[in-house]
Amino acid sequence: MTAPLSASAATTAPEPTVGPTTRASRGWIAMFTLAYVGINIAWSGPAQVLMSPQVERMTEGAPWFFSATSKETNLAVIGFIAGIFALLSTPLWGALSDCTVSRWGRRTPWIAGGTVVVAAGLVAMGFAQTLPAVLLSWVAVQAVINAVITPVSASVADHVPVAQRGVVSGWYGFAYTLAVVVGTALGTAATAIWAGPLGITVGYLLCAAACVLAIVPFVFSRWEPPLAPVEKPPFRLAELLACYWVDVRRYPDFGWAWLTRFLATMSSATGLFYLFYYLQDEVGLTRDDAATGGGLRVSDGVLILTVVYAVSVLVTVVVAGAVSDRVGRRRPFVAASAIFMSVATLLLAFVPTFPVTVLAAVILGLGTGVFTAVDFALVTEVLPEAESNGKDIGIINLAIALPNVLAPVVAAVMVNSLGGYTGLYVLAGALSVLAGVLVYRIKGVA
Prior knowledge:
Blueprint: H1 26-59, H2 71-98, H3 108-127, H4 131-144, H5 146-159, H6 165-193, H7 197-219, H8 237-241, H9 252-272, H10 275-283, H11 298-327, H12 331-350, H13 354-380, H14 389-417, H15 420-438
Helix pairs in contact: 1-2, 1-4, 1-5, 1-6, 1-7, 2-4, 2-5, 2-14, 3-4, 3-5, 3-7, 5-14, 6-7, 6-11, 6-13, 9-12, 9-14, 9-15, 10-11, 11-13, 12-13, 12-15, 14-15
């Protein structure tokens, strides 16, 4: 991973390699955005509304490795184990794409191959009949999904000039948000139309199909030039293993950017991991499998919150990126977004009612829109070397993968032993505030 942060490091970071100078076309931005929508549908549908009822249904009589009584524990076990594989694979895919030579370029072969495997994993999850089968399928999805996400993210540093990255990063955030809405909507619609296990299966199939269809235009656009064989760097195992390392004493801004993203993502991941169960057990929405009607279903509640959240994100995400480009500043936007996110989590902590949860979704969306757009632009400006953009983006993405490994454990401990949902959301708010403070340790970006 990264070396320990050193606030007292005296070494001056080398000047970053000059990046691209030609502005990305609107067509490229559109295909990039659509591809990022597709790959995020692959996890958002399952994580938001499909896995929770699937795990709950399979918990009774679960094998010894799982709990026979606690759906929360089983979901945490699956999330933690799959997250480990995502964590280990994230920088590796970026490093492999850095040294790939093909007539399709460096990134495209990994994006195409990864999409096929992810879609197959989602299909397998849809037909899984036991918790071990769900676990193995989700491990396959999480281990390979970053073979798509990391090269797609690296394409921004490869292809977009610095002066345009705020706008493109805004569309990056827009894509992520739209994917969460679409994935949640697909899962909710499927479980509403087809009751029981059939609805869950259809939901997974719809997410797999949407993922593939959205990524195909980017794959076939031939946006990156082929790399001639004479340009291929010699393969060295030591360099491949170094894909988990950046010397932050030499590149301190990279280290602080990594830590800022880690804390903000940890806040979001821990706060949202049990959203389905929070609405069911704390807010009091109706279980999806309840025999009688008489209230808002949990999956419908998740969809409503997701749409509200998404609309709020869209209010700020593209605008914040463009304004950040215009004023030439990133850090104040990140700090302000952290305050918004902390206010939202505190509302969830102390007022567990559905109207207040909707208000929290609005505030969280406004803050997340700003953070997603501007933080990604900031990250692309502190990458050490253009030749290793894939590897370095992979390490930055560990700041997303690692929280998703830790979140199931932290959330389970908080909910079961340390203050319940109140303690969980107070912790999430504190992590967000800390991220807003530490962004000012980044000195090379305004």
